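Long-time lurker, first post. I've been practising inverse folding by hand and with some scripts of my own, and I keep getting stuck on stretches where the structure tokens seem ambiguous. Below is the full token string for one chain I'm working on. Before anyone asks, I'm not after the true native sequence, just a reasonable design that respects the backbone. If someone could post their per-position residues I'd love to compare against what I wrote down in my notebook.
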């Protein structure tokens, strides 16, 4: 996922949001795999490899893209995917995501809560 627009203002550094993942057994996969550390720990964007540098092409550093609204996050779902609630910190950018114009923040760290969002 990439941002199609970038907001002028900086987002709050911390917050609550939602992220869409492919679910493969106990693993959650997005642009990265959580391996065995899927929940209950802070994950750092720098620990995962960017999937091709798309974010560098449009002018911002790689990070975790987080939807601010649950209902809009569900619009992003494809078969075999789940929405997970998370908290984030060290957010440095806000804008809208490709495709659905969904308000999104980009942060350096996420903490994924256990269990799917119903």
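-- Answer (accepted) --
I ran through it position by position. Result:
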């Amino acid at each position: 996922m990439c941002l199609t627009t970038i907001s002028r203002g900086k987002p709050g550094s911390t917050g609550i949001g939602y992220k869409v993942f492919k679910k493969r057994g106990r693993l959650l996969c997005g642009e990265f795999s959580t391996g065995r550390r899927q929940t209950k720990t802070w994950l750092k964007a720098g620990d995962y490899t960017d999937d091709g540098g798309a974010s560098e092409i449009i002018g911002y550093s790689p990070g975790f893209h987080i939807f601010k609204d649950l209902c809009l996050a569900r619009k992003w779902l494809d078969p075999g995917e789940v929405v997970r609630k998370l908290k984030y910190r060290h957010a440095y950018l806000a804008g809208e995501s490709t495709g659905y114009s969904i308000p999104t923040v980009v942060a350096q760290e996420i903490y994924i809560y256990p269990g799917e969002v119903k």
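A couple of notes from the structure itself: The chain has one domain: 3-112. Strands lie at 3-6, 15-24, 27-29, 42-44, 64-67, 81-97, 103-112. Happy to go over any region you disagree with.
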